């Protein structure tokens, strides 16, 4: 849920509305907000699973210290979504354990 | 902004300690730079939307983020470079600082280093603590107040220290329901006034309780809390509460890695957060040229962080040969203000004892009906509010029974009707003959502990002026619920007017008409349908 009006902070200032994909599904969010914020605003709290037990994990510290919020972003696994700003056209994927590198090999 | 390869003073951390260190060093004539790994400067301050305690020198009565802005502006005026998204990885002999920015490492050679890396949150492990929705109270603050997203609608908070109590209030302002604050001890750890502020909103504080387990498949659905008694929590079945966020406010830990790695000597102090760097009175550590200020040197408050930063800044500049004007006087002033703040620190353990004896807590078993551990006002105050001395003129009620380092009520009163004096921890004294009932103190009190009652309003009704920060604001003539100190609805009343002038700094003062007989017990209004 988004907090648009706030008694102390006033109206929220947000970036431009952009499209991105979560596990192939189209979604929208505001450019520049952390990926985790865009997902949680739409009720999504689970970002992946732990390697050992396969149980779900989500945001815990929100300041880039704990790595519980990591996802695979544009093929790069282990991206801390709480401190990574959302950009238009991002491909975000739920990550199991340490995830896999899916970066396209650069051709010279 | 290009980052210098050499600098006179490198300040690590742009929280209140780091910013004020750089400001005082620059005022003394030195050229400091500031590094911070965050996207924005201000450290903890930018999550804090409440009015702060303290005195004028500490920006008291201002909200945390406004204090951050004021410090930043001062740094800007002095042309102090503040480099963000710059993480310091290590400090090597000769004050060689290794940094990371944009995935590249580089070094800065510093003549003096001021470490102001602050603190991080402690975690708490229990069955289910890894389920999404369990998070640090700081994480909840960051999401609500910076990114403006509410992670859940029904929130349970673990820990009734000041952080837990304040975050509970902030969650209400953000529009969430706070199901309760759970505290393992038999008394709250935070200030009485902070607890009173949420109790009157109807947020229960469960003393002698702890979290046993959290349940949910993809995310948190329920939390089980248990009463702690002689048998301990296990085996006892607790009470399940439907919640979607559990926020942990169980203390902060100084971020000491850099100080350790740089070779500073440490000492243990449980009250200040564990292992902390040893310091001389001028804030220098055992490693010459490395200074420490703020929460890193022991978990205290922003006010202390600001003073320590100032002292470290002046000392570092002085050691480089800068002779700030009236430096001795300045240092003495800082030290005396610190002593005044610390005086409170030392007395805290004492006030905890008095708190336990003067304020009665009521604990019912969690299974019995409405389980709320109510916090009661000391009996002196209760008598005072019941038997008001003057029936003809408006008078204020101040419910501030505990020594807090705070004086905005005194500062704001144009008539000198509230006196605190020195030390700043004195209880406020009210001289009703001077009071005009202007209401400025009601909005200025950071703890929302001041109320006004006018018994001459009409035959059967008294007028009450109450501070209010939630949305939506009550409209004139609206019928609202009238709540007592424990958040219980005891009557209904009509709104006379709502004032939210600039001088109130976003706190509204709502006037309601309440039946004469119960007017003295009303502390909050419920505008929800
Ligand atoms: C909920 C809550 C309510 C509070 N209310 C009050 C109040 O009413 N009154 C009051 O006086 N105090 C209050 N405080 C306390 C106050 O916020 C802290 O004491 C104060 O912020 C400490 O300041 P600091 O500068 O030491 O650390 P911080 O504010 O934590 O700043 C540290 C900075 O260092 C940076 N940093 C850390 N490591 C590195 C690194 N390796 N490289 C680069 N940068 C780094 C961090 O990014 C951060 O910006 C409250 C705190 C909380 C959590
Ligand atoms: S109501 Fe006005 S005059 Fe009376 S004590 Fe408060 S600030 Fe002073
Ligand atoms: S009554 Fe005065 S001293 Fe007490 S919390 Fe309010 S402003 Fe501070
Ligand atoms: S939530 Fe801890 S790193 Fe993102």
Largest sheet of chain A, in brief, is:
5 strands, mixed
Instruction: Give the C-alpha Rg of chain B.
Output: 24 Å
Ligands (ions, cofactors included):
flavin-adenine dinucleotide, iron/sulfur cluster, FE2/S2 (inorganic) cluster
Class inferred from helices and paired strands of chain B? alpha/beta
In CATH terms, the superfamily of chain A is 2Fe-2S iron-sulphur cluster binding domain, sarcosine oxidase, alpha subunit, N-terminal domain
Summarize the structure.
The complex is a heterodimer of chains A (108) and B (529). Chain A is mainly beta and 108 residues long.
Features:
heterodimer, A: 108 residues, mainly beta, Ubiquitin-like (UB roll), five-stranded mixed sheet, three-stranded mixed sheet, 1 helix, 10 strands, 6% helix, globular, B: 529 residues, alpha/beta, seven-stranded mixed sheet, seven-stranded antiparallel sheet, 11 helices, 30 strands, 24% helix, binds flavin-adenine dinucleotide, binds iron/sulfur cluster, binds FE2/S2 (inorganic) cluster
If you had to describe this structure to a student in words, what would you say it looks like?
- Chain A contains 1 helix and 10 strands.
- Chain A is mainly beta.
- Chain A has one domain: 2Fe-2S iron-sulphur cluster binding domain, sarcosine oxidase, alpha subunit, N-terminal domain (Ubiquitin-like (UB roll)).
- The model of chain A has no long low-confidence stretch (mean pLDDT 93).
- Chain B is α/β, with parallel strands linked by helices and 529 residues long.
- Chain B is built from 11 helices and 30 strands.
- In chain B, the strands form 8 sheets. In chain B, strands 1, 2, 3, 4, 5, 6 and 19 form a 7-stranded mixed beta sheet that branches. Chain B has a 7-stranded antiparallel beta sheet with strand order 22-25-26-29-28-27-30.
- The radius of gyration of chain B is 24 Å and the shape is globular.
- Residues 345-390 of chain B have low confidence and may be disordered.
- Chain A binds chain B through residues 1-9, 12, 14, 33-34, 37, 40-41, 45-47, 50, 55-65, 68, 82-83, and chain B through 37-39, 49, 63, 120-121, 123, 130-136, 138-140, 142-145, 147-151, 153, 173-175, 217-220, 469-471, 473, 506.
- The complex binds flavin-adenine dinucleotide (FAD), iron/sulfur cluster (SF4) (2 copies) and FE2/S2 (inorganic) cluster (FES).
């Amino acid at each position: 849920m988004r907090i648009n009006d706030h008694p102390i902070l006033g109206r929220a200032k947000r970036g431009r509305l952009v499209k991105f994909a979560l596990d192939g599904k189209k979604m929208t969010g505001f450019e520049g907000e952390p990926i985790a914020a865009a997902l949680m605003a739409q009720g999504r709290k689970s970002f992946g699973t732990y390697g050992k037990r396969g149980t779900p994990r989500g945001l815990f510290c929100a300041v880039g210290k704990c790595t519980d919020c990591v996802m695979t972003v544009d093929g790069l696994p282990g991206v801390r979504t709480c401190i990574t700003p959302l950009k238009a056209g991002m491909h975000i994927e739920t990550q199991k354990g340490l995830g896999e590198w899916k970066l396209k090999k650069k051709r010279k | 902004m290009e980052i210098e390869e050499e600098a006179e003073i490198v300040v690590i951390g742009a929280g209140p300690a780091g910013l004020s260190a750089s400001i005082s060093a620059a005022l003394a004539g030195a050229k400091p730079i500031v590094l911070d790994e965050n996207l924005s400067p201000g450290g903890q301050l930018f999550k804090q939307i409440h009015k702060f305690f303290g005195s004028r020198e500490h920006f008291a009565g201002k909200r945390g983020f406004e204090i951050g802005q004021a410090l930043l502006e001062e740094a800007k005026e002095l042309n102090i470079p503040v480099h963000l998204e710059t993480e310091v990885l290590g400090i090597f002999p000769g004050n060689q600082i290794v940094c990371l920015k944009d995935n590249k490492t580089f070094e800065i050679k510093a003549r003096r280093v001021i470490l102001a890396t602050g603190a991080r949150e402690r975690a708490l492990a229990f069955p289910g603590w890894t389920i999404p929705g369990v998070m640090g109270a700081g994480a909840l603050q960051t999401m609500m107040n910076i990114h403006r997203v509410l992670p859940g609608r029904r929130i349970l908070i673990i820990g009734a220290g000041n952080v837990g109590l304040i975050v509970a209030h902030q969650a209400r302002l953000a529009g969430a329901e706070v199901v309760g604050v759970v505290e393992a001890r038999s008394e709250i750890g935070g200030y009485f006034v902070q607890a009173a502020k949420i109790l009157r909103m109807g947020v229960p504080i469960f003393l002698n309780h702890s979290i046993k387990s959290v349940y949910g498949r993809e995310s948190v659905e329920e939390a089980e809390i248990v009463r702690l008694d002689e048998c301990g929590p296990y085996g006892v079945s607790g009470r399940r509460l439907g919640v979607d966020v559990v926020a942990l406010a169980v203390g902060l830990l100084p971020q000491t890695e850099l100080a350790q790695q740089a070779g500073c000597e440490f000492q243990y102090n449980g009250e200040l957060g564990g292992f902390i760097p040893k310091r001389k009175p001028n804030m220098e550590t055992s490693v010459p040229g490395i200074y420490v200020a703020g929460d890193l040197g022991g978990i205290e408050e922003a006010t202390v962080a600001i003073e320590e930063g100032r002292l470290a800044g002046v000392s570092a500049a002085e050691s480089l040969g800068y002779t700030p004007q009236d430096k001795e006087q300045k240092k003495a002033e800082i030290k005396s203000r610190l002593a005044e703040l610390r005086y409170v620190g030392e007395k805290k353990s004492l006030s905890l004892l008095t708190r336990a004896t003067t304020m009665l807590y009521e604990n019912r078993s969690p299974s019995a009906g409405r389980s709320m551990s109510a916090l009661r006002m000391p009996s002196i105050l209760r008598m005072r509010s019941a038997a008001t001395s003057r029936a003809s003129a408006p008078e204020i009620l101040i419910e501030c029974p505990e020594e807090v380092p705070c004086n905005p009520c005194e500062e704001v009163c144009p008539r000198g009707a509230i006196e605190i004096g020195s030390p700043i921890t004195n209880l406020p004294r009210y001289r009703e003959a001077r009071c005009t009932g202007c209401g400025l103190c009601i909005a200025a009190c950071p703890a929302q502990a001041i109320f006004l009652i006018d018994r001459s309003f009409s035959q059967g009704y008294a007028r009450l002026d109450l501070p209010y920060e939630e949305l939506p604001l009550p409209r004139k003539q609206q019928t609202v619920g009238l709540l007592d100190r424990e958040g219980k609805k005891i009557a209904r009343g009509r709104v006379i007017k709502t004032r939210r002038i600039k001088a109130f700094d976003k706190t509204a003062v709502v006037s309601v008409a309440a039946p004469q007989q119960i007017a003295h017990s009303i502390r909050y209004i419920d505008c929800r349908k």
